[in-house]
Amino acid sequence: MATQPTAATVHQEPTSFWRRYIFSMDHKVIAIQYMITAGLMGIIGLVMSWLMRMPLTWPGESIPIAAKIFPGLFEGGVLRPDAYLAMMTMHGTLMVFFFLTAILLGGFGNLLIPLQCGARDMAFPFVNMLSYWVFLLSCLIMLASLFVTGGAAAAGWTAYPPLSAVAAAVPGSGLGQTLWLIAMAVFIVSSVMGGLNYITTVLNLRTQGMSMMRLPLTVWALFVAAIIGLLAFPALFAGAVLLLLDRHLGTSFYLDHIVVGGQHLAREGGNPLLWQHLFWFLGHPEVYILILPPMGIVSEIIANNARKPIFAYRAMVYSIIAIGFLSFIVWGHHMFVSGMNIWLSAAFTLTTLIIAVPSAVKTFNWLGTLWRGKLRFPTPMLFAIGFVSTFVTGGLTGIFLGNPTIDIQLHDTYFVVAHFHIVMATSAVFGVFAGVYYWFPKMFGRLMSERLGKLHFWLTFLGMYGIFFPMHYLGFMGMPRRYYGFGLLQYLAPDTQAIQLFITISAFITGAAQLLFLYNLVWSLWRGKRAEANPWQANTLEWQAPSPPPHGNWGEHMPVVYRWAYDYSVPGASQDFIPQTVPLEQEPTGEHRRAAVAAPELSGNGEAHRNGG
Amino acid sequence: MATETTAHPVEQAVSWGGGVSPFGVSWQKLMMWIFVLSDAFIFGSFLVSYATTRTSIGTWVDTGKVFALHIAGAEIPLLLIAIMTFILVSSSGTMALAVANAYERKKRETIRYLMLTMFLGLTFVGCQVYEWTHLIVDYGVRPWWNPFGPPQFGAYFFTLTGFHGLHVLSGVVYLGVIARQVARGVYDRRGSYANVEIAGLYWHFVDLVWVFIFTMFYLF
Ligand code: HEM
Ligand SMILES: [Cu+2]
Q1: How much is the pLDDT for A555?
Q2: Peptide bond between residue A81 and the one before it cis (omega within 30 degrees of 0)
């Protein structure tokens, strides 16, 4: 039986430089384009976070070096308040959408979905290519907004009206906010084009033998994340259209009796809460778009480096699906203090606490996989374990915040900043690092330096906790987020300034540690140890292709899959890993259902496996 | 590819051959389904926003009056909208005929029904242009103001019908491209008219959305 040809299988490998590396339709090239672009956006976002730290740490003090590098943002050596708000807004936006979403779905999605499904390319390579170029366009629009009069948008990554709707509200609410909205709309178009491909490819282009329940967890996670994106982004798209109309056509979707600068605007009947609902209908699923793919990556890496099958594969799949579903019905927990019916609050509390259950299932399964494994600790594994740590730390504070009685105190304080930077920012970034260290040899045929990698990990791991853990304490004390200065808040204890200093020093060290990573990337590209096809002794399909895989991935014959992706340390097997392409009569399997249904003579092994681990 | 089907019998009994499972549709059609689903969420967001705004304002506009036509001195409520709805629903019928003929590879009939569908679509948009002009010029309706009631009435009117109208227009262009492909014999050479059916999916979806807009915005 032949698998369906994609549009690409008909195409010959392009020979010109432009078609091959720039306007390429090859999913691997598009993946690398996404990774590089998103990585650059991440670096810009990182620099912005340093700028934000300056007035928080040294209020009113002049910082000549920074003022020299960014003259447009500083006045008298001090970061201007409106520039602070713009940096805060752009930092959040760039990091959440243009770095993490793009690198996870556009980067890893493109790289791994066809390779791990056993396809030659995405279903519709042309649209896939278009998705990247439209993404690049949205990046350029967003960056351009930094240079317009009034500066970039300043209403936060959540862009709440009326701040974002009335141009006179804040300097950044001029052209900057308009460009922000347009860039987001363009970004959504790009993500829809990508998402269509990811979903159809997983559903329709799997190779022979690769049933859904044999897919590696990375593919499952990317698949569900893509579905979430496709159904959640439309709400933000609609919201952005309405907000643009409010800004430029005089409508009042979100506005009601606004007074700006003593002037009463002739707008009435709208409701700013409408935006909050539309935004968070995307916003909450979005955070799971950012966490599911790292969960998949981490599952893969932990199983590989514990040399054990992933603990409870089916539970892992079902919890991914459950998280995907539940993520659509918890958004109200961001609005407990915005004015919400108290019974509705109760309902959202309930769903919010329920979503912690599948998250916990996954955590316990990672621990179960590590338990008594023959652990190896290469850099990807360190980042994977680091992910489990930060995910637990940040997830637990989420449960506090899910209770309105506590959240009313903690909302809009640094406690929330601590929560989401640990559970989302740090964890997702660890997932990205783990993935890059793990698949770098597949992408470029060389291994990254382990020594630099380990140093990078420890500095980043300790640094991230150094930055974000103390913020819990600041939040308890009532320090509000998104404030430029705290001089008038006399209730704050005097030691807050010392904590701020500690956080900032951690931030600079952690940031500098990323230079190690960049250096490692560049160094390894040319000097790294040559990698054979399967340097991690892994089972998934991509490792059966050469490193890097050729155009069309598989040469003349498509791979055929006989087993799941987690046959590690199967008793009675000749080595401690069995690639998915090895037929069952050659090697036994630990895949339970198969053992029971298809090959009764193997069920003994399956049992032994379950008990022996 | 097909040469690799050497899996042993046990293997074949419990697994599958790759490709189109679990839904048994081609990726092209699946992609359109998923796109339509995503698009439905955009319309859904607009409509839910409209519904919440309208209910929270409390007062609204008598749409029967606003969208009435005066014929020979008599005021017939929603007449134009009824005609538009009839046109669009009919275009779904002609589209279905185009798809049916495409299945039988009747090139000429397929093109004819595609053209007819496009014509009906354009007529619909024409009616919409008339309706907008009427409201803007004769009544002075603006996105921020209207003589009938809350300003949100005009705002949602332009947003909902405008966004839907854009969909109809892009649908007409899309069908035009497909008709051209049919005329050039592309699908005969390919041996499959599936693209006509996929375009039909989009067209029916746009019609279906109109039914919701008609019910929620005009009728209520
Ligand atoms: C274990 C389950 C989780 C629960 C119960 C939970 C609960 C909450 C609650 C109630 C808030 C609102 C706090 C407030 O603004 O007052 C919040 C904020 C947030 N959460 Fe979580 N969360 C969980 C996991 C996650 C995960 C996995 C991510 C991301 C990957 C995440 C990302 C965020 C973000 C980004 C915000 C703040 C958005 C903002 O206001 O700018 N959370 N969380
Ligand atoms: Cu949330």
Answers
A1: 83
A2: no
Task: Tell me: do A516 and A536 sit in the same domain.
Answer: no
Find the mean pLDDT for residues A149-161.
94
Q: Is the pLDDT of residue A7 over 70?
A: no
Tell which of A478, A503, A530 closes a domain. Answer: A530
Quote the domain boundaries for residue A504.
284-530
For A203, the closest of B22, B53, B154 (CB atoms) is B22
The tokens for A91 are 């930092």
Confidence of residue A612 (pLDDT cuts 50, 70, 90): very low
Work out the minimum CA distance from A377 to partner chain B, whole angstroms. Answer: 35
Q: Assign residue B103 the CATH number of its domain.
A: 1.20.120.80
Gyration radius of chain B over CA positions: 22
- Restricting to A residues 83-122, those with a Cβ less than 8 Å away from any Cβ of B are 118
Residue of B nearest to A266 (CA): B144
pTM: 0.92
pLDDT, one tens digit per residue, over A483-531 is 998 877 788 888 899 999 999 999 999 999 999 999 999 999 999 999 9
Domain, as residue range, for B189: 27-219
Residue A376 lies inside a defined structural domain of this protein: yes
What is the separation of C-alpha A550 from the centre of its chain, rounded to a whole number of angstroms? 28
| pLDDT tops 80 at residue A293 | yes
Q: Which of A530, A545, A574 is the last residue of a domain?
A: A530
- Contact assessment for residue A34 and residue A103, using Cβ atoms and an 8 Å cutoff: yes
Q: How far apart are CA A229 and CA A189, in angstroms?
A: 11
Q: Which helix (H) or strand (E) holds A79?
A: strand A78-79
A499-528 CB burial, b ≥16 within 10 A, e <16? bbeebbebbeebbebbebbeebbeebeeeb
Same-domain check for residues A291 and A320: yes
Tell me how far the alpha carbon of residue A394 lies from the centroid of ligand 2, in angstroms.
12
**Same domain assignment for residues A578 and A525:** no
- Residue B116 domain flag: yes
Query: Are the beta carbons of B34 and A124 separated by less than 8 Å?
Result: no
List beta partners, residue B74. Answer: B71
Say whether A577 sits in a helix, a strand or coil.
Answer: strand
C-alpha A478 to ligand 1 mean position (Å): 18
CB–CB contact B31 A196 (8 Å)? yes
Name which residue sits closest to atom 36 of ligand 1, judged by CA.
Answer: A420
Contacts of A195 in chain B (CB under 8 A): 34, 38
Which residue blocks in B59-150 are alpha helix, DSSP H?
63-66, 79-103, 107-133
Residues A328 and A426 in one domain: yes
Q: Is the minimum distance from the CB of A414 to ligand 1 under 6 angstroms? A: no
Task: Give which of A610, A584, A581, A587 is closest to A597, Cα–Cα.
Answer: A584
Burial zone of A333 (CB within 10 Å; 0-12 exposed, 13-18 middle, 19+ buried)? buried
Protein residue whose Cα sits closest to atom 32 of ligand 1: A420
The residue-averaged pLDDT of A22-39 equals 94
pLDDT at B18: 67
Rounded Cα distance between A289 and A428, Å, is 10
Residues 524-583 in A contacting B (C-alpha not used; CB under 8 Å): 557-558, 560-562, 583
What residues contact residue A89 under an 8 Å CB cut-off, 6+ apart?
A152, A153, A154, A155, A156, A157, A159, A172, A180
Quote the CA–CA distance of B121 and B175 in Å, as a whole number.
10
d(CA A493, CA A487): 12
pLDDT at A11: 52
pLDDT tens digits, one per residue of A333-352: 999 999 888 899 999 999 99
**Minimal CA separation from A408 to chain B, in Å:** 25
